[in-house]
Amino acid sequence: MDESLTSKIRNDFDKIALHDQEGWDHNNHYHRFLLKQLPIRCKTVLDIGCGTGEFSRLLAKRADQVIAMDLSSKMIEVAKQRSKQYVNIDFQVGDVLQLQLPVEQFDAIVSIATLHHLPVEELLPNLKSALKPGGRLVILDLLEYESLQDSLSDVIAVPLNWLFQILKNRHIKASPEAVKAMREHLRTDKYLTLSQAAVASQSKVLPGLVLISFGQESDLTSASAGFFENSCS
Ligand SMILES: C[S@@+](CC[C@H](N)C(=O)[O-])C[C@H]1O[C@@H](n2cnc3c(N)ncnc32)[C@H](O)[C@@H]1O
Prior knowledge:
Helix content: 25-40%
Number of helices: 8
Order of helices and strands: HHEHEHEEHEHHHEE
Structural class: alpha/beta
Largest sheet: 7 strands, mixed
CATH architecture: 3-Layer(aba) Sandwich
Strand content: 25-35%
Strand order of the largest sheet: 3-2-1-4-5-7-6
Oligomer: single chain
Number of domains: 1
Distance between the termini: 31 Å
Number of strands: 7
CATH class: Alpha Beta
Shape: globular
Bound molecules: S-adenosylmethionine
CATH topology: Rossmann fold
CATH superfamily: Vaccinia Virus protein VP39
């Protein structure tokens, strides 16, 4: 992967982390749904691109150990501050592409809103081999629109998104610096369409992957979740 892009992503998220406020967003909206796709009890779970660790903390309630990693050291700093009572989370700064993932180690691997920063074809085989037999890979990410149906789903999803923002984030006001940092990041963000994600992941790499597309997420992208159970022994 292009080192200058990795470096931009790291810098972008270092800035975004400084302005992060806890509240409702289009990623944590799906947390409960994603948790349902995971085993009730896990020994070891990996959270890739954990950000400020909100989902890692939910994982820590059902796993003996959570390894939560992120490219941005500032994100990990905030995550550690917010997770002091979670002694079973091991927060690590690192690039998942540089990580030598252990074979058949994890009961579950989770990644939220991070895969669009990574070369999926390169990463997925490594994630698959890092899962224990029967382990689960759960991914939530953004998608580029590709069909009229995607656009039509906005008729419901866009007003709902606004409504949740108003109701749930009433007391939260993003600072101009926060908005600027996010805009700068989105300038280089690129997403796959659902068909591209299916081709990149399903055919040979993760046979049996279930891909679900939800409605509008933000800035004219929709969200999708993928679940894969490693049936290889
Ligand atoms: C949009 S944030 C999502 C954070 C968190 N998962 C959430 O749902 O709030 C994407 C995160 O992925 C991280 N990231 C991007 N590329 C990465 C890489 N190569 N290795 C590890 N983390 C990465 C970023 O630093 C950022 O914190």
